[in-house]
UniProtKB/TrEMBL annotation:
<dbReference type="InterPro" id="IPR007391">
    <property type="entry name" value="Vancomycin_resist_VanW"/>
</dbReference>
<keyword id="KW-0472">Membrane</keyword>
<feature type="domain" description="YoaR-like putative peptidoglycan binding">
    <location>
        <begin position="252"/>
        <end position="359"/>
    </location>
</feature>
<feature type="transmembrane region" description="Helical">
    <location>
        <begin position="51"/>
        <end position="74"/>
    </location>
</feature>
<dbReference type="Pfam" id="PF04294">
    <property type="entry name" value="VanW"/>
</dbReference>
<dbReference type="InterPro" id="IPR022029">
    <property type="entry name" value="YoaR-like_PG-bd"/>
</dbReference>
<dbReference type="Pfam" id="PF12229">
    <property type="entry name" value="PG_binding_4"/>
</dbReference>
<keyword id="KW-0812">Transmembrane</keyword>
<dbReference type="InterPro" id="IPR052913">
    <property type="entry name" value="Glycopeptide_resist_protein"/>
</dbReference>
<protein>
    <submittedName>
        <fullName>Vanomycin resistance protein VanB</fullName>
    </submittedName>
</protein>
<keyword id="KW-1133">Transmembrane helix</keyword>
<feature type="region of interest" description="Disordered">
    <location>
        <begin position="1"/>
        <end position="45"/>
    </location>
</feature>
Length: 605
């Protein structure tokens, strides 16, 4: 290495100027002469020269690196950086974005060309614009600028940055699904169900479908390359395998229903039969196909039916009664029920066992839904409506007894604001066990003896009371034949369990149903806070009138004669007024069949 100094300063000056002329590395070390001790002053100058020369070299190298780095980092984007073959290096982000956009504009026709896409055995062309395929210019320039972080290792050279491509994934998915068609298949989820007390297994099968994320990436890459794209269909297997399903059947489902479970409480013992276990034990698969066993608490309670009655105390809602012409609160009581939430976990734990199938359950207090405090603040203060219908035969007849029985069951019921009252839901089945008797009912177009006959008269009375209170009609069905004891159209039948009567308390106040009866009448009154000035019915004329025919029936105890009645169609309008103005006008329409004249005798020859 040969160094040349220019204008060397005095020996005591620490600021030498050094210029690098040439650098060469000896291949072989030259023969060294025998050293001769220099004069003292000369040694100091030699050491100083070496130090100055080393410092100069370092400074020169750093200076040259700085020059190259400055050149490399000029602008926001490092020099040598290209996108889609366009040089963006040395530019500000704004300039780089403009240059890239110009390149995209030049390639607009190419980038707008349809892409050939293949899925399985089917091929189609997809319009890039329809699936939102675009180059995100700002994101691409940002990625190019971020390349500075790595440019220190490559001060000279070039770097190609892949453009950032956006796509409307839902739209692309929709187009690809058209291609999939019947080639794909949904995942068959694993399942275990019961037929009676016999477990049935359903083995899982994998789905064959698109992988949304991978499909989008493949299409984005193919769009820029201009090459046909193949989007694969991917199998996705459920987490729970067929072997695991069989294991659950053998280790849980079968032993679960092999024997009853004994339930101990402080108030006695209840047996949970295999049938109740089968109805409440469920194996549910999540979206990934993982099968998890559990006990459905509601289904377990329902399956046990009245078995829990001997250990539970049902809560009793507070009610209201009319005393001295005013509503009075009758307090309810708290109940005690089996803690089903804890029971289901304990039950699930013993079901795999073949012996020691005994669990204990706590009885927790249950507050009634309607308390005295709650019912007192419902605004039940005045009679809003009342309706009466009449019957014959006195209170001793089976039909009259049925009317009185259902009236007593409904009397004092409070319907909370927003709640829907169901007559079938409130009374349950109306059979012999509930105190109902045989009386005439309409079945298959004729009067026949049936348990609970006469309850339709109470239903009509209740319907009219709620109708004239302005409450919302949810469900009712008039009789198929017209009976003069009821108002036309505005009446309702009922039959367990298919025909029901329902109304909704569409006010902000509570509604009390008050029932009363005499030897020949039934009355239903609605108590609440009066909202409307009046509720009346306006009838349209009867039309499409039909005449009855005569039908001869086999005489006997089950034959009930009838005089017959005309059939007709009629409209009824509920007109509701407030502040002297009509605020609601609701139309009710019904068509009555002509009731035949039934004669209990053989038809004359």
């Amino acid at each position: 290495m040969t160094l040349y100094g220019e204008n060397r300063p005095p020996a005591d000056d620490d600021r030498p100027t050094v210029q690098v002329k040439a650098v060469s590395w000896p291949v072989e070390e030259p023969e060294r002469p025998t050293p001769v001790d220099p004069p003292q002053g000369s040694a100091k100058r030699s050491r100083r020269v070496r130090i100055l020369l080393a410092t100069g070299v370092a400074t020169a190298v750093l200076a040259s690196v700085g020059v190259v780095a400055a050149w490399t980092y000029a602008g926001d984007v490092p020099r040598g950086t290209t996108v889609l073959g366009t040089e963006l290096g040395g530019r500000s982000r704004a300039d780089a974005a403009r240059e890239l956009q110009a390149q995209l504009d030049r390639r607009a026709a190419e980038l707008a060309a349809p892409i050939e896409v293949r899925v399985g055995e089917r091929t189609a062309q997809i319009n890039p614009a329809e699936v939102g395929l675009t180059v995100d210019v700002d994101a691409t320039v940002a990625a190019a600028a971020a390349a500075q972080a790595h440019a220190v290792d490559r001060l000279v050279g070039s770097r190609e940055i892949e453009p950032v491509v956006s796509v409307d994934v839902p739209k692309l998915e929709a187009e690809l699904q058209k291609l999939v068609g019947k080639q794909g298949r949904k995942m068959t989820m694993p399942a275990i169900t019961f037929s009676g007390t016999t477990p049935k297994a359903r083995h899982p099968k994998p789905s064959l479908a698109l992988d949304t994320e991978h499909s989008a990436q493949v299409v984005k890459e193919g769009w820029l390359s201009g090459q046909p794209v193949t989007v694969p269909l991917v199998e996705n297997h459920p987490v729970t395998s067929a072997d695991e399903v069989d294991r659950l059947v053998e280790e849980l489902a079968k032993p679960a229903v092999a024997a009853p479970v004994k339930l101990n409480t402080d108030r006695g013992t209840v047996t949970i039969p295999p049938q109740a276990i089968a109805k409440s034990l469920q194996f549910k698969a999540d979206k990934a196909g993982k099968l998890t066993p559990s006990v459905d608490a509601k289904k377990l309670r329902s399956a046990l039916g009245d078995r829990l009655d001997k250990v539970e105390v049902a809560p009793k809602n507070a009610t209201m009664t009319i005393s001295g012409g005013k509503p009075k609160v009758v307090d309810g009581r708290a109940g005690k029920q089996v803690d089903i939430g804890k029971l289901r976990d304990d039950l699930l734990a013993v079901l795999p066992r073949t012996d020691d199938r005994t669990i204990s359950a706590d009885l927790k207090p249950v507050t009634p839904k309607v308390t005295a405090e709650k019912i007192s603040g419902l605004g039940i203060k005045e009679k809003v409506s009342s309706f009466t219908t009449y019957f014959t035969g006195g209170l001793s007849s089976p039909r009259s007894q049925n009317i009185v029985t259902i009236a007593k069951h409904v009397d004092g019921t409070v319907v909370l604001p927003g709640d829907t009252f169901s007559l079938n839901g409130h009374t349950g089945e109306r059979g012999y066990a509930q105190g109902y008797r045989d009386a005439p009912v309409i079945l298959d177009g004729k009067l026949v003896p049936g348990v609970g006959g006469g309850t339709s008269q109470f239903t009509t009375t209740l319907f009219n009371a709620t109708y004239y209170a302005g409450l919302e009609d949810v469900e009712h069905k008039p009789h198929s034949y017209y009976f003069s004891r009821y108002p036309a159209v505005i009446e309702s039948t009922i039959f367990w369990p298919n025909l029901d009567f329902k109304f909704r308390n569409n006010t902000e106040y509570g509604v009390l149903i008050d029932t009363s009866y005499t030897a020949n009448s039934i009355t239903v009154s609605i108590w609440s806070t009066k909202i409307w000035d009046s509720v009346k019915t306006e009838y349209g004329p009867r039309r499409n009138i039909t005449s009855p025919k005569t039908v001869y029936l086999e005489p006997g105890p089950s034959c009930i004669p009838a005089n017959g009645s005309q059939g007709f169609t009629q409209d009824a309008f509920r007109v509701i007024k407030k502040d002297g103005k009509v605020v609601k006008r609701e139309k009710f329409t019904w068509t009555y069949d002509a009731e035949p004249r039934f004669i209990c005798a053989k038809e004359p020859a």
